[in-house]
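Hi team, as promised in this morning's meeting, here are the two structures we talked about. I've kept the exact order from the run log so nobody has to guess. The first one is mostly here for context; it's the second one we should focus on when we meet again. Sequence first, then the predicted structure tokens.
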Amino acid sequence: MNIEKETTKLIQYCEKQSYRGYDPYDGLNSSIIKVLTLKNKYLRIIATQLIRRCPVNIRPILGIKRGENPKGLGLFLWGYTKLYQKDPKPEYRHEVEYLFSRLEALVSKGYSGFCWGYNFDWQSRTFFRPEGTPTIVNSSFIGHALIDAYETFGDRKYLDRALSIRHFILKDLRRTMHDSNSFCFSYTPVDTAVVHNANLLGAALLIRLFKHCQEPEVKQAALSSLSYSMKHQREDGSWYYADTPSEKWIDSFHTGFNLQAIRYFLSEGFGEEYREGYNRGVNYYAENFFLNDGTPKFFHNRTYPVDFHSPAQAIVFFSGEGEQYQGLTNRILKWTMDNLYSGKGWFYFRKSPGYTNKISYMRWTQSWAFHALTEFLLNQNACKNSENVVINS
């Protein structure tokens, strides 16, 4: 299978949709659901989960419209930037400019710096986050994309927007202290959630921004939040999702987020004392989340359901780890194309034994597919200077 050709099909599909789509968690965008749930936390959770798990897309019946998700737009911007690095076509730069304009229009208002949330209300087990409530995860992914856009195109506006995010992270997010030298950033300004991938993603963005702003406070905050999550790394190299009794699971793609964030520190010349922990984490990731044929497991001890995020983040991470993991990367990519690809330019949501949920989600699936395929192509190009990457299928 020609990966460049299939990436082009994905581009055509997403551009035709103007990067708008449904989301697994957009159930509360339904006016019907808002009335029926009576602002009750448990009813909101039940309704969201029922719509997410439904094998048929009932959103049009419920009045849920396709929307623009800032995180998805950021991943698309990142992907076009990578394609431009590989092959500087003007149409790639044009899409970066368009996506940047949309991100500027969707900035969450009333905060200390640029930041982004989701295009839907979001009820978790502990907090209700209204539409637009900014998250450290969304803002960090977009920030990383903007830094790469600046370093690729040299346009200062990308860096200025990325630098602005540091004010949101440093001034608006809450901090959970471990000791005087380490703390964890909250997920949003309205909660105190202690989630390692969110904390590390924000820390990694700060350490990349430090190179451009040279502010001691930025470096210190980055290193302190990195220290927090490294102190909570388990002996075998893994992390629990969060430090709460109900969130002690170990899953694939959040493990990948953790490791990619730490890799940014190492590449920037910081955190060398955590090199051994990083290596343990990479080994744990590679050895516990994939079957021999490349099937990506959801949890360390359970395969199904295979969520598209699992292979996507694995392709992103391992394709950047060099030749040692090239075989694993290729197996994961082949499995993904064989099992989660429609053949028509878009990807499926999840696969379970005997059943595949084929609903198309723009943010959760298509933007991640684009992020993964473009990262794979860029890293393959850097290694082999190849123009046409083919995976036997």
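And here is the second protein, the one for discussion:
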Amino acid sequence: MPKPESFPIEKIFVPTKQKKAIKPETIAEVAESIMEIGQQEPISIRRDGDRLVLVEGLHRLEACKALGETTIIGVVVTAEFAEHKPLLAERPEVEAERLKMARLKQLRLEKEAAEESMAGLKGAGATQVPRPRPTKGDRDNSRASPGRTAKAKPKTLSDWITQQKGSGGRY
């Protein structure tokens, strides 16, 4: 692969067919990336007489223009390469990225399905099995104080009097 070099942006001609593919949202994303980490991949250009013709890297070029750059890093490719450049989908790095994204999507879908399943089980469990309500005076009622249960023995005289008043008994 040819060595990357710096080229003046104003000297690079963009074919009309490529200009139709400009996506402003992509330019904004690329410009933000260039501001944060710099231009990571050079554009591809070919020589056509005295001018430079863009082969690949339209959004990188437009992002650099939007950022006010006067030069861009690129590589000069031969006209044969420009005409027979491999389709984006045929490149191994693009295929690897596509497979990675597909795996991540599958993992995300599996996680969401598991979360929905667990939420469904929790919701079904809450409606199918009613919770027992504690009854007044039940010894298993952890909230009831020992002096207020019917079966509890009073520990003091005042507890016995309170118990007798509550049960309608005489003291």
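Starting points for discussion:
The mean pLDDT is 77.
The first helix runs from residue 16 to 19.
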